[in-house]
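Re: export button greyed out
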Amino acid sequence: MPALIIIPAYNEARKIKEVVSSIKSAGDFDVLVIDDGSVDETAVAAQSAGAIVLHHKINRGQGAALKTGVEYACRQGYETVVFFDADGQMSAAEIDPLISKLHEGYDVVLGSRNLGRAINMPVSRKIIKKLALILTRLTTRLDITDTHIGFQAWRVDALKKIRLNQDRMAHASQLLAEISRLKLRYAEAPVTINYSDYSLKKGQSIFGSFRIIWDLLIK
Amino acid sequence: MLIQIILIVLIAIIILRLFAKYKSREVSMRQLSGWLAIWLLASAVIIRPDLTVRLANLVGVGRGSDLVIYLAIIFLFYTVFRLLLRIENMEKNLTKVVRSEALKEHNRHE
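Workaround output, generated via the alternate export path:
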């Protein structure tokens, strides 16, 4: 069975087709796009590029969309899944190396910009990421070089054990906390993240980090 | 004092509306009695502020109105906390419904 590439997408009609096609041509992968209540043509664009599309009737957030993807993967009997972003800042060519690394005997392989490269990353974001990394290393005791990156390869067996109830962006912290709690075998692999004007506009603002901390505290 | 009259009139209106809602079965007997107790207590405190002064002195607070504000703040914080939990629960349930719909819809198409 091929690996399933899970892409949460919210109003990504402009980029999603290109992203799905690039994955399809990078290898023998099944691509699942979770259209998270988009008001544009995201679903149609994704489908036309050959993706399987699941449709959230209302926007529930990236964490919720990923979990829907995981649920689908479990039901369909996939063994390997890769989390990928819809905004075109990740490189499809790096999916295969991530999966190869996973097959060396890990439960999860996390992409790392610090081992790889971050192109055009704004300074404000560098500072926030650095703080988040320090905080994450302290709270999870994971020995990692990068944090909150959506590029990850997972064994579905390991994913099944994980509690994932953060609907919005705090899910990324929750995943790391769960890796630590369940003592999963984890590794990092270098990835390249190319920040374009488009992906920056679609991405998180600094205020988003406050929201994440709030979500983590009260839930 | 004028403020007493204004507050009493406001509370009277609220109580009247409460009874109207009870008649149209928007609120249950339990809700009616609960809210009625709260508003009657509020009127008692407004008409006889010295009641709160005595209570306040009893627990070691200088002014009656201070005691009322302390209690009100505690009550409000607790209410906000309860509401947050409830909203959180609703959001989670909403996500579950949306997810199961998404997966179901897909099965139909297959």
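Chain B touches chain A through 13 residues (CB under 8 Å). The button fix ships in the next patch.
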